[in-house]
Amino acid sequence: MEAPTHLSQGARRSADQAIGFLMQQAVENPGCISLAAGLVDERSLPARLVRDAVDTLLADGESGRRLLQYGTTQGPEPLRRVYRNYLAELEGRSDGLADLPLSRMMLTTGSQQLLSLIVQAMFDPGDICLVAAPTYFVFLGVLQAAGAEIIPVEADANGMRPQALRGALERLHAAGQLGRVRLIYVVSDFENPSGVSISADRRHELLELAQSWSRESRIYLLEDAAYRELRYEGTAPPSIWSLDRNRETVILAQTFSKSFSPGIRVGLGVLPEKLLKPVSDLKGNEDFGSAHLNQHIVAHALKNGSYRQHVESVVASYRSKRNAMLQAIDKEFAGLHGVTWVRPEGGMYVWMRLPPIVQTGFDSLLFQQATRVNRVMYVPGELCYPTSWNDRPRCEMRLSFGVQSEAGIEEGIRRLATAVRTVFGRISGGNE
């Protein structure tokens, strides 16, 4: 008999991830319109810009070969200076953030690598992370693999509620568990999945709570700002990171995957001093440093201004697609009692809630009707809550307008509304 293969606890805790199942459904249902994929629109990808950058960077053989060599774990210092200037522009700092030491910055393989490294550096099994409800389900998988205890905190149209966070911290303190809290995780702008942004006043309050409750051990706040540049209306509030005056509480994670190219895979992190060495050590074990040439490609676009022009075109395209999705929802879901949705000011997602009697999970009647019959796919909302939370809502869904054309979005929403109406009819005996 063949000997069994031993798998680590982390591997076992990572089994049956939702992304794999969604990809399988897409393969098994050809012709299915995906409103699930959080991918960027391929038509927006900067092929010519990247080609021109590579031609320029590799034009000189000697310097070009250096770019094809290994970089450094945190990214070469001259490049980090370019990225610091970019961050200063986003933060509205005319001084180029000269007071931010380059040593605090780290270039990563997308922001996802930084999220993973932070968890590896900070969490032992049983340690606690507080997250907004709902939140980014891939990060929930990272926490789950580490054996973390994930505690959901109520959120509304203005993001995570400070009062709810305070309540959670008070309960943990009363139970003698405050010393196990390692992290508060928020997506500050146009959250994946809900599309909401944390309001300006709440940003101050959340930061103050993380600082004031760091009594037994430091509680860090991880600000995932992956979508901050994809704003279609309204005024951008200051980042939570910019409010952290001594820069010892907030970890800032950003990425160029959504605004530039996921194939280039460049992320930018700013870390508190105490986390620099442990995170850098772990990163060194993984890759010695993220792709050197890719970092230079993005830096080249930042320096010559082509990146900003590209972002403007991406924002214009996604704004039109967001509008197309909202208009289609207004039309197709009109008259369906109890259906509500978020109208995001940016990002790539619309969050929809159905009446509680209509479940949206993979095993639900609606998911089967939508994928098998009406041939449209969405992300079930229950994935965006900790699996250990028995009271998580089962009637929500995340709809993405990133990949589809406007015509595809309109047809996808029409199909989804048809599926919802059909399931409503079956459940209510024909009464909507």
Q: Helix fraction?
A: 40-55%
Q: Based on helices, strands and strand pairing, what is the structural class?
A: alpha/beta
CATH class term of the largest domain? Alpha Beta
The named CATH superfamily of the largest domain: Type I PLP-dependent aspartate aminotransferase-like (Major domain)
Tally of alpha and pi helices: 15
DSSP strand tally: 14
Q: What characterizes the major β-sheet?
A: 8 strands, mixed
Record the strand order, biggest sheet. 2-9-8-7-6-3-4-5
User: CATH architecture of the largest domain, please?
Assistant: 3-Layer(aba) Sandwich
Spans with pLDDT under 50 lasting ≥5 residues?
none
Question: How far is the first residue's CA from the last residue's CA?
Answer: 57 Å
Beta-strand fraction estimate: 5-15%
Any idea what the shape is? globular
Gyration radius (Cα, Å) is 22 Å
Write the CATH fold name of the largest domain. Aspartate Aminotransferase, domain 2
Query: Mean pLDDT, as a whole number?
Result: 93
Number of domains: 2
**N to C succession of SSEs:** HHEHHHEHEHEEHEHEHEEHHHEEHEEEH
